Amino acid sequence: MRSARPGPVHVVGAGPGVGAAVARRFARAGHPVGLVAPDPARLAALTLDLAAEGIATESYPADASDPADLARALAVLAERQGPAEVLCFSALPDVGLIKPLPGTGAADPDRAPALDVAGAEAAAATVLPAMRAAGRGTLLFLSGDAVEHPHPDRAATAIAGPARRTYAALSRALAGTPLRVAHLVVVGRHEPDRVADRLWELYQAGGEAYAVLTEQPGTQP
After folding, report:
1. Confidence band of 108 (pLDDT split at 50, 70, 90)
2. What is the pTM assigned to this prediction?
3. Which residue has the higher pLDDT, 186 or 130?
4. Contact at 8 Å (CB) between 161 and 150?
5. Between the CA atoms of 177, 72, 120 and 28, what dihedral angle is there, to the nearest 10 degrees?
6. Number of other residues whose CB lies within 10 A of the CB of residue 97
């Protein structure tokens, strides 16, 4: 049974699309919202946009592929808002890594997991101690369709996608505790609100989960 007083949701990779939709969905249920994104100006703009909708947030800029930078940002949010009840890791891959196999450099396969594995691990390691102490907490991971459909046109990110899935599976070590892990894979194009609603459903359902949100027939590019 959920606490009568929802704890903070901290969104890593917050942007005007899915990140903002997640913020709105959880804020609607009374969760304080904390936002992390790499670009300070865009993060400030998102904070102002949400404030105009009546959603108060805390934010702190950080590069999700830099574990120390990300851990610092999440620690600051926890100081300001209290420990996260929900961590939503939805950081986007470096667009420079989305390229065909022939154009992939020798270092690219290492750069992709810096976000998808090292970043996710750093985020989880930062919030899990307080979640354990509180006896509640949910880790939500969001990935693109490289997890389900690796493609040679997205070689480096296709390597990292399954790595994040593997990391989420390893988090089953939390079985038997009140802490939960869910991983949502988004295939194709979707309205941000639909993605946020599915993440909310996974949070509400509790338990370890791996879910795929498939593209609906007739979806416009």
Report:
1. very low
2. 0.83
3. 130
4. yes
5. 70
6. 20
**Residue 47, pLDDT above cutoff 60:** yes
Regarding the domain delimited by 54-210, which CATH topology (the fold level of the hierarchy) does it fall under? Rossmann fold (3.40.50)
Instruction: Tell me the β-bridge partners of 213.
Output: 186
Contacts of 71 (CB under 8 A, 6+ apart): 122, 123, 125, 126
Report the Cα 153 to chain-centroid distance in Å: 24
Q: 33 has which bridge partners?
A: 9, 57
Sorted by where each begins, the domain ranges of the chain are 54-210
Contacts 24+ apart (CB under 8 A), 163-167: 163/113, 163/116, 163/117, 164/116, 164/117, 164/120, 165/210, 167/116, 167/117, 167/120, 167/121, 167/141
Rounded to an integer, what distance in angstroms lies between the CA atom of residue 49 and that of residue 192? 16
